[in-house]
Write a structure and sequence with these properties.
The complex is a heterodimer of chains A (343) and B (326). Chain A is 32% helix and 23% strand. With 343 residues, chain A is of the alpha/beta class. Chain A has 2 domains: 210 residues, P-loop containing nucleotide triphosphate hydrolases (Rossmann fold); 67 residues, no CATH class. Chain A has an 8-stranded mixed sheet with strand order 6-7-8-3-9-10-12-11. In chain A, helix 7 packs parallel to helix 8. Chain B is 28% helix and 25% strand. Chain B has a 9-stranded mixed sheet, sandwiched between helices. A 4-stranded antiparallel sheet of chain B has the order 2-1-4-5. The chains are: A alpha/beta (343), B alpha/beta (326). Chains A and B meet through helix 8, helix 9 and helix 11 of A and helix 5, helix 6, helix 7, helix 8 and helix 9 of B.
Chain lengths: 343, 326
């Protein structure tokens, strides 16, 4: 297995430089309006506030952040479920924020979505067969035989054997790992170009997590899929993606290759996340960890300047609370929005 | 550390009656906990670890088939107490619990202060004002601002609600707190903060903990001792340092191998197959079908072998030293 992993990283590296940009996001902002008494403007929730990145064909990236940092809003906007307030999302050169409903429907058929809670993501009254046929029916695959062929092949790919035993079952009859395999199969049935995986293993048992992540990585390589892997668990990221983005309070504060980020974390928030992540060790219980105080800010009135400044242990007084830090590049392909790295 | 255990379980059994048959959730569990010690019970979901917590605290559903064994708390067998004595003298006064998803089990229509003080008022007969004073002290320990006592649960973040639930378990100053998956729904930073709080409580108030979890990596933040549970049985009990360096039972080793690590280059592995249903358990070793080291003897139920201070229920250790339990 270790060889497989190394080759995966190398493969991804080569792919990303060779292949074109699939998804290009520029200065994306998603704000939700708050109304006073049902009408009248009372402010905005700045869920996503100035996010830019490129996703290449066949590339896996991870977005890491705590709950409430806007990663789900970012993902839903990319899926075309929310309209961006500002900014552009170019998919194969077309701006999805400008698309009409019919075009959006076509766009969504090119994008797969793996939900966090597999049980919640499947209708409890439908059999596995019906659940898997649904996306094909909606997207106009009328030939029953073709649908059957596709879903059987897909189930074999996600290693749900024997297929005939599973088709008539209902979601509650499956274990958590099997449910997640069905959700993964469903997301790939229409042969999308990229997949958004929203915490695909956080609801699963520790012993099954690795199995599902490996399955997902295998499928990603085989089908040359681009994947956005959203998670709050840094320890699983490096088994899955090439690049990692750290999100805090609606913004991407650090973007780097996974190894660079782990070897040389720059942003104080990234450092805090790494310090908070434990590896099993008998000595852990003996020390109390140094952690930033407080909680992530309210996104209705985010802090001025750098949004992490009220919790930051390395604050530069007079600068961080006033000026929004731009992106600096302390090493190639490693960007960080923090004044500490001003050249 | 005192040499008398605070809590000692002997052949604790909890079987449920269901329409499908007998669920052997807790099957002859033995372990002990010293004062000011933290034991982590790890296992996959459905292995009976939450039922073990319920069996210790006697928070039982109605469909009990068997509930037997001995539970010694400070030397007294609390299984002999009737329910009323148990409620008065044991639960919450000597040990309390932070249930699974405690942060979501706070009553939404009561102020936090009313809920946190309730066990204190009931168990000590204190006045509301005294109870609030005590609650403020507890909030100080767990790091919640005092004015949160007047708020409602929905006004607090998940981390703050979890801390309030810990304060509620702590308010009567019991010697032992059982935590059932205390941080599984929380973010990494919040998780680490909660573990800092628990470490502080252990040092300053000398509280003992039983921590029930499937997350080995974060459990190492508190563990003095690790008990591994599989299909209703404890298969290994080891001190934390030895466990995290070299686990004994093949299941424990597999569990350790399945932990993704942030540091180091070890590729995680997974355990093939699924744990057996507690309705229909195999004879012999229950891990047999998934075990990479199985051999002829595994058809028979393995006894518990003692290796130094460590206990392991596996035939691989039959030649190490003599068995302590048959």
């Amino acid at each position: 297995m270790p060889e497989m992993m190394n080759s995966a990283v190398v493969q991804n590296d080569r792919d990303a430089t060779k292949n074109g940009v699939l998804l290009s996001i520029k200065d994306l902002r998603v704000w939700f309006e708050l109304k006073r008494m049902g009408f009248g403007h009372a402010g905005d929730v700045h869920a996503v506030d100035g996010v830019s990145f490129d996703l290449h064909n066949g590339e896996a990236i991870a977005v890491v952040g705590e709950s409430g940092c806007g990663k789900s809003s970012l993902m839903k906007t990319i899926l075309g479920l929310y309209r961006p307030t500002k900014g552009t999302i170019l998919f194969d050169g077309e701006d999805i924020s400008m698309m009409k409903t019919a075009q959006l429907k076509n766009y969504r058929s090119h994008v797969g979505y793996i939900q966090q809670d597999p049980y919640g993501a499947m209708a409890p009254f439908m059999s596995i067969e019906q659940i898997l046929e649904e996306p094909m029916l909606i997207n106009g695959i009328k030939d029953k035989a073709q649908r059957q062929k596709r879903l059987r092949r897909m189930l074999e790919e996600v290693k749900v054997f024997p297929v005939d035993d599973f088709l008539p079952k209902f979601p509650h009859m499956l274990s958590g790992g099997q449910q997640q395999r069905i959700v993964i199969a469903r997301s790939m049935l229409l042969e999308p170009k990229f997949i958004v995986a929203d915490e695909p293993v956080s609801m699963l048992d520790a012993s099954v997590r690795v199995e599902i992540l490996k399955l997902l990585r295998g499928l990603q390589e085989e089908r040359h899929l681009a994947v956005i892997y959203i998670t709050h668990d840094l320890s699983t990221v490096r088994y899955f993606s090439r690049r990692i983005f750290v999100m805090y309070a609606g913004q991407l504060v650090e973007k780097a290759k996974v190894q660079d980020l782990l070897n040389n974390p720059c942003h104080p928030y990234t450092n805090a996340l790494l310090a908070a992540t434990s590896d099993p060790d008998g000595n852990n219980a003996k020390v109390i960890k140094e952690l930033p105080p407080g909680e992530p800010p309210n996104l209705i009135n985010p802090p001025t300047g750098c949004r992490f400044h009220p919790r930051c242990p390395r604050i530069i007084n007079g600068l961080c609370e006033k000026e929004i830090p731009p992106e600096f590049e302390p090493e190639p392909e490693h960007k960080v929005a923090c004044w500490l790295y001003k050249p | 550390m005192a040499d008398k255990p605070l809590l000692q379980l002997e052949d604790l059994v909890l079987h449920f009656k269901t329409t499908k048959g007998k669920v052997q959730a807790v099957d002859k569990v033995n372990f002990s906990l010293m004062p000011n010690e933290a034991v982590v019970v790890v296992g996959e979901s459905g292995c009976g670890k939450s039922s073990l917590a319920k069996a210790i605290l006697r928070l039982l559903p109605k469909n009990i088939e068997t509930y037997s064994g001995k539970v010694f708390l400070e030397g007294q067998d609390i299984m002999l107490l009737n329910d009323e004595e148990y409620r008065k003298n044991v639960r919450w006064s000597k040990m309390s619990m932070v249930p699974q998803a405690a942060m979501n089990s706070l009553n939404p229509v009561l102020r936090i202060g009313d809920q946190v003080t309730e066990p204190y008022i009931i168990h000590t007969g204190a006045s509301k004002a005294d109870a609030l004073k005590q609650a403020k002290k507890m909030f100080g320990y767990v790091g919640v601002p005092e004015d949160f006592l007047n708020r409602y649960a929905f006004e607090l973040s998940g981390g703050m609600r979890q801390r309030a639930a810990i304060a509620m378990a702590l308010i009567t100053l019991p010697g032992l707190i059982i935590l059932d998956e205390p941080t599984s729904a929380l973010d990494v930073l919040t998780q680490a903060n909660i573990f800092n709080v628990l470490k502080k409580l252990k040092r300053e108030l000398e509280i003992s903990f039983i921590l029930i979890t499937h997350d080995i990596a974060t459990s190492s933040e508190l563990a003095d001792k690790v008990a591994v549970m599989y299909a209703g049985q404890i298969v290994e009990v080891s001190d934390a340092t030895s466990f995290f360096t070299k686990a004994l039972h093949p299941y424990s080793r597999k569990l350790m191998d399945s932990v993704p690590r942030l540091r180091g280059d070890k590729e995680p592995d997974f355990i093939i197959g699924q744990p057996p249903s507690l309705l229909n358990l195999p004879t012999g070793c229950r891990f047999r079908d998934r075990c990479p080291s199985r051999f002829g003897l595994c058809d028979q139920d393995p006894p518990v072998f003692q290796l130094g201070d460590r206990l392991v229920k596996c035939w691989l250790y039959k030649d190490s030293k003599e068995a302590v339990h048959a």
